[in-house]
Design a protein that fits this description.
It is a single chain. By secondary structure, this protein is an alpha/beta fold. The protein has two domains: about 90 residues, Urease, subunit C, domain 1, CATH 2.30.40; about 280 residues, Metal-dependent hydrolases (TIM Barrel), CATH 3.20.20. It contains eleven helices and 17 strands. Helix 3 runs parallel beside helix 4, helix 4 crosses helix 5 and helix 9 crosses helix 10. It is globular. The N and C termini lie close together (about 10 Å).
């Protein structure tokens, strides 16, 4: 069936432009033209349309609610149920595509392969690579030395991973380590990066401390996740190598704003990193380093809906224009994930992932939590609008 959406204000990467677009078999088949052969028309006069949002840093097998696993057994089945719940929650604020950067039980890999029509698309990483006893080692794949890092990357790629995640530093949520701790070395990271790039897939590094960030950038990593402690040399390296940063600004914020039932060490570290983290992202924005939206959803209290909108708002607070924020959440993220030939824009021959909004998000990003309809592959999966939709 050909459905023509008429008179919409469509975000083109710079501004909203009034135009029609047609969806056929889940694909944009005509954008900016009238379709005389449409089987159905939907009038979107007064509504705003953006591409579906992309969250480039999620953990779909983690529960933001610290009590979620109380009296529940953790296994592949229960974690899959949780992952599906998390993915459906993502849809409610317009997220139609995610990158999972560290799953357990290969849940993200298996869900990605199923291509379930009522869930967001997934770029899956499978197990993240960490040093023995390092950050994320409990649920990841422990590797030590260049040969093991190479084999670890090959192992997750063999299982079907479309992204390789490495742990370059310690972190906030793990006891006994700090964000400054250098973990996988530059040479170990490079070995994993080479293997992923051979297959045409991107790589991501959990890197919070300055030296670990530089190691990851020099190793050719595609995106640095978190980037809490930046200096001028790190910024210069990122610009030289074309590195993208996925800030996850809300991850520590969600912790320190909910201290009552979390371990003291975690809350203390979250409070300590918050200001330098924000200052680092401001520095990156000022220097034109590409930013892709990602939230670390699944970490404590960091849910898959409300905190997505908060993340985007914090980019604006850090100096990005509303247009840049929307691009970071669509086109920039799509390019990072190497799926720009599938999603990321309202453009002919791309998947019809789009969001219809009553209110202009360039005026207030809260529009994504208000009156909204969400389409994935042309199917309406969320509708909180009074009239739009089919």
């Amino acid at each position: 069936m050909k459905v023509e959406y008429q008179n919409a204000q469509v975000f083109d990467g710079h501004k909203f432009v009034k135009q029609n677009f047609t969806v056929e078999n889940g694909i944009f088949t005509a954008v900016g033209t009238n379709n005389q052969s449409a089987d159905q028309t939907v009038d979107l006069t007064g509504y705003y349309v953006t591409p579906g949002l992309i969250n480039a840093h999620t953990h779909i097998t983690l529960a933001a609610d610290p009590h979620y696993w109380d009296n529940k057994e953790q296994n592949a089945v229960t974690k899959t149920v949780l992952a599906i719940q998390n993915l459906k929650e993502s849809l409610t604020v317009g997220v139609t595509f995610v990158r999972d950067v560290g799953s357990t039980e290969d849940v993200d890999l298996n869900l990605m392969k199923l291509h379930l029509s009522d869930l967001p698309g997934i770029v899956a990483s499978g197990s993240a690579l960490s040093m023995t006893g390092g950050h994320g080692a409990k649920g990841g794949l422990e590797v030590d030395g260049v040969d093991e890092a190479r084999k670890g990357a090959r192992t997750v790629l063999k299982k079907g991973a479309k992204n390789v995640k490495v742990m370059a530093t310690g972190g906030v949520a793990t006891p006994g380590e700090t964000p400054y701790d250098v973990q996988l070395s530059e040479d170990e990271i490079r070995a994993a990066v080479v293997e992923a790039h051979h297959k045409g897939f991107p790589t991501a590094a959990h890197a919070q401390g300055t030296e670990g960030i530089k190691n990851a950038v020099r190793a050719g990593i595609d995106s640095v996740e978190h980037a809490i402690f930046m200096d001028d040399e790190a910024v210069k390296l990122m610009k030289q190598y074309g590195t993208v940063v996925v800030p996850t600004l809300v991850a520590p914020r969600a912790i320190y704003e909910n201290p009552e039932e979390l371990p003291y060490f975690m809350v203390k570290k979250a409070r300590l990193v918050a200001k330098p983290h924000f200052a680092s992202i401001q520095k990156l924005v000022q220097n034109g380093v590409p930013i892709a939206m990602g939230t670390d959803s699944g970490c404590p209290y960091d849910d898959f809906s409300h905190w997505v909108v908060n993340e985007m708002k914090m980019y604006q607070d850090a100096g990005m224009t509303p247009e840049q924020v929307l691009n970071s959440s669509t086109m920039v993220a799509a390019k990072l994930l190497r799926v720009e030939d599938r999603v990321g824009a309202v453009k002919e021959n791309l998947a019809a992932d789009f969001v219809v909004l009553k209110n202009n998000p360039l005026d207030n990003l809260s529009a994504f939590e208000q009156e909204i309809a969400v389409y994935h592959n042309g199917r309406q999966l969320v509708n909180r609008l009074e009239k739009a939709g089919d």
